[in-house]
């Protein structure tokens, strides 16, 4: 499945529903504040940028599970070009 195909409202709904499942043990890395996941499939209204251009979440402590766990699996990782997470 091409990345463009995964960047849809349907794909986001699937990511939201499956957010209740555990994160893959093969996920390594950490968030690098690129903000790419906050634009799937549209820009989140809580995505903000500070003066150095790094993104941040305005509601970080109470952000939804699908945000907390993205990317939960390798197949969900559609922002690999900028994301700090990867799968071994």
Total count of helical runs of at least 4 residues? 3
Low-confidence stretches at least 5 residues in length (pLDDT < 50)? none
Going by helix content, strand content and strand pairing, the class is: alpha+beta
| Chain oligomer state | single chain
Q: Can you count the beta strands? A: 4
Residue-averaged pLDDT: 91
**Estimated helix fraction:** 10-25%
- Tell me, what's the shape? globular
In whole angstroms, how far apart are the ends? 20 Å
Rg measurement, Å: 13 Å
Order of helices and strands: HHEEEHE
Q: Characterize the largest beta sheet: strand count, sense, and whether it forms a barrel.
A: 2 strands, antiparallel
Kindly describe this structure.
The structure is a single chain. The chain is of the alpha+beta class and 88 residues long. It has one domain (3-87). It has three helices and four strands, in the order ααβββαβ. It has a two-stranded antiparallel ribbon with strand order 1-4. The model has no long low-confidence stretch (mean pLDDT 91).
Write the layout of secondary structure elements.
Elements: H1 3-6, H2 9-17, E1 27-29, E2 47-49, E3 55-57, H3 65-69, E4 85-87
Antiparallel strand pairs: 1-4, 2-3
Brief write-up:
This protein has 88 residues and is of the alpha+beta class. Helix content is 20%, strand content 14%. The chain has one domain (3-87).
């Amino acid at each position: 499945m091409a990345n463009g195909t995964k960047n849809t409202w349907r794909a986001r709904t699937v990511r939201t529903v499956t957010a209740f499942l555990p994160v893959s043990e093969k996920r390594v890395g950490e968030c690098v504040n690129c903000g790419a996941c906050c634009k799937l499939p549209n820009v989140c209204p809580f995505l903000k940028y500070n003066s150095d251009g790094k993104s941040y979440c305005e509601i970080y402590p109470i952000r939804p599970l699908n945000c907390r766990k993205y990317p939960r699996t390798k197949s969900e990782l559609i922002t690999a070009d900028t994301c700090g997470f990867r799968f071994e």
